[in-house]
Design goal:
The complex is a heterodimer of chains A (144) and B (331). Chain A has 144 residues and is of the alpha+beta class. Chain A has a five-stranded antiparallel beta sheet with strand order 2-1-5-4-3, sandwiched between helices. In chain A, β1 and β2 form a beta hairpin. The N terminus of chain A is likely disordered. Chain B has three domains: 102 residues, PAS domain (Beta-Lactamase), CATH 3.30.450; 81 residues; 141 residues, Heat Shock Protein 90. In chain B, strands 2-1-5-4-3 form a five-stranded antiparallel beta sheet, with helices on both faces. Chain B is extended and about 100 Å long. The model of chain B has no long low-confidence stretch (mean pLDDT 84). The chains are: A alpha+beta (144), B alpha+beta (331). At the A-B interface, α3 of A face α5, α7 and α8 of B. Chain A: This is NLP1-9 GAF domain-containing protein. Chain A: InterPro entries: GAF-like_dom_sf, NLP1-9_GAF. Chain A: Pfam families: GAF_NLP. Chain B: It is found in: Cell membrane; Cytoplasm. Chain B: This is Oxygen sensor histidine kinase NreB.
């Protein structure tokens, strides 16, 4: 987990997203941030490899979708064949829909107290399965 | 005899399953009955018992028609059957059992249709309550509980000023999020904006929210609110139909874009919900699965207010749902 001090500016987040996108084979990389003021909305703020600007419209909900689950639990999540989830399913991941992702991993970016205020997500449009290994691989970018 | 030959043919080809019993024994059955047994593994004696249970509650013993009977099958769908028990020969205890599979819509009577619909609506209500209850439990209660834990940590823990600051902010965020969820739930149950600002703002708010939740583009193109003079009943129905149509599209069609069109014509107000998703074969889906009962219920609500309800869809060509209400009619 990355301490808040290490990447507290937006510029750092933008740079991180771009670096991951350019040095890995992920087809989409994004960071969702929770606003620090009312109503504390969570949105995708930085993305690389995006196919449209549609991702900006998404409001994440804690506990719903891969990234939402990371926000709620503070634990990494990954899943494949994301289009199998219907809209009413808790695993339905809006970003997967907006960006046509087949698979994705998401890991928490935590503040010093352990509360999650950002989530890093990376995924594939092609049928490239992700696993715990992919989670670890993405995690390396936060430590490095 | 020629009469027997045609009688036999008629029974044999009937889409209703017909079985003849003598006592407990099945003595004859037609093709549909065999099909029913083979495909769903239904025991004829079981069906006989269901029909006879209906018999005991009836005074006239010669013919008994049951209400719709739902039988779960090995596949996920359930079978909706209507059974008719008819005594043919009292002395030899011979009787017939005619079973209609209500999956075939054309075989339905108006009353049976109503029964199915009522059941569907009741089930939908119950499901809605279940969802609200679960949301209250999962989101609201959980959120309040987390806030309580935060307060406890704040008062009991030996926190540095910086940690105090962060904890208090975490508690605030927790409570604000819970507040947002409560407001969302209230919105789901009945949008206040529909009552105070009218149909167009309500549909726009709905589209914006569903777009934010789904990642699918949802456009609303609407005429001026003033141009839409509808009764509050009509507004409610249009709102609910729109809500269900968008939800249906999101759930089943994998669309990339949904558009709601609200327009007024000389004598008609028209609402269309279009999506560019998978579409479906209307004819194939005309039997009673949950989806089409949902459609049937929408249609029922619209036609009850003298409106017109149409749906057109083809595989891979999306779905268009149209509702029209006449203007200036006597209400």
């Amino acid at each position: 987990m990355m301490a808040l001090e290490q990447a507290k500016t937006n510029k750092d987040y933008a740079r991180l997203v771009n670096r991951i996108y350019h040095t890995s084979d992920f087809e989409f990389v994004g960071i969702a941030l929770q606003e620090t003021y009312y109503p504390f909305v969570i949105k995708w703020r930085f993305a690389a490899g995006n196919q449209s600007e549609q991702f900006r419209q998404i409001v994440l909900r804690k506990g719903i979708g891969i990234a939402g689950l990371v926000f709620r639990t503070g634990k990494p999540f990954y899943d494949n064949n994301l289009s199998k989830y219907s809209f009413s399913n808790k695993m339905y991941t809006p970003i997967a829909n907006a960006e046509s992702l087949w698979s994705a991993v998401a890991i928490p970016v935590a503040s010093s107290l352990g509360t999650v205020n950002a989530v890093l997500l990376a995924g594939y449009r092609r049928k490239q399965p992700v696993s715990l290994e992919t989670v670890a691989h993405l995690g390396e970018y936060l430590h490095g | 005899m020629i009469k027997d030959k045609y009688l036999e043919k008629y029974v044999g080809q009937s889409r209703s399953a017909i079985m003849f019993f003598a006592g407990d024994q099945l003595i004859a059955s037609n093709h549909s009955a065999e099909e029913l047994q083979r495909r769903y593994g239904l025991d004829p004696c079981y069906l006989r018992q269901i029909a006879q249970n209906g018999k005991s509650s009836s005074t006239a013993g010669y013919q008994v028609r049951t209400n719709v009977v739902t039988i779960p099958t090995k596949e996920k769908e359930s079978l909706h059957l209507s059974l008719c028990y008819r005594l043919l020969d009292q002395e030899e205890d011979v009787y017939s059992l005619t079973i209609r599979n209500l999956q075939h819509e054309e075989q339905l009577s108006a009353q049976e249709r109503q029964h199915l619909l009522t059941r569907y609506v009741n089930r939908a209500h119950e499901k809605e309550r279940q969802r609200i209850s679960q949301d209250l439990h999962d989101s609201i209660a959980q959120g309040v509980y987390s806030a309580i834990m935060g307060v406890r940590r704040f008062t009991q823990g030996d926190l540095s000023p910086a940690e105090q600051q962060e904890t208090s902010q975490a508690i605030e965020i927790q409570l604000q999020e819970t507040l947002t969820e409560i407001k969302e739930m209230a919105l789901d149950i009945r949008p206040a904006v529909l009552d105070s600002f009218g149909l167009v703002p309500a549909i726009k708010a709905l589209a914006k929210r569903l777009q934010a939740n789904s990642g699918v583009i949802i456009n609303v193109l609407a005429v001026d609110e003033q141009a839409i003079q509808l009764t509050s009943d009509e507004q409610s129905v249009l709102y609910r139909v729109c809500q269900e149509a968008i939800n249906n599209a999101l759930r089943h069609a994998h669309p990339s874009e949904i558009t709601v069109l609200l327009s007024n014509h000389p004598h008609v107000i028209q609402m269309q919900v279009l999506d560019d998703g998978d579409g479906f074969n209307l004819k194939k889906n005309a039997h009673f699965n949950g989806h089409s009962l949902g459609l049937m219920n929408m249609k029922e609500r619209v036609t009850a207010l003298n409106g017109v309800f149409e749906i057109s869809s083809h595989p891979h060509e999306g779905t268009t749902l149209t509702v029209k209400f006449p203007l200036n009619t006597v209400r």
